[in-house]
Write a structure and sequence with these properties.
The protein is α/β, with parallel strands linked by helices and 111 residues long. Helix content is 42%, strand content 23%. Strands 2-1-3-4-5 form a 5-stranded parallel beta sheet, sandwiched between helices. Helix 1 links the parallel strand 1 and strand 2. Helix 2 packs parallel to helix 3 and helix 3 packs parallel to helix 5. The protein starts with a strand and ends with a strand. The relative contact order is 0.19.
Length: 111
Amino acid sequence: MSKKIKILAVDDDFINLKLIHSMLKKSEYVSDVIEAKNGLEALNILKEDSDIKLVLLDIKMPIMDGIEFLKRLMPRYPIPVVIVSSLTQKGKKTTIEALEAGAIDFVPKPS
């Protein structure tokens, strides 16, 4: 049996967050999905939970967006981050900026 991982999903869109959560919970490789509504909330969660092994991150959010989150995250908690955003298709500049800030990959939001 493979080891399961805990994932942090960060998105201000309630419906997308719940969709991502329900999709991931079906996987035999995922033990838990923690949710955050913005980058600041996500950083606070990561301070308290060192078991999180992957972050799925939206870019455009209130309070702290995904780019600022990445810039603050990587020096302290360098864990894999995958961008899940509608901007991956529309905003190539934003996608490049996220990759330069430390994201490892990007996918479009589920529809």
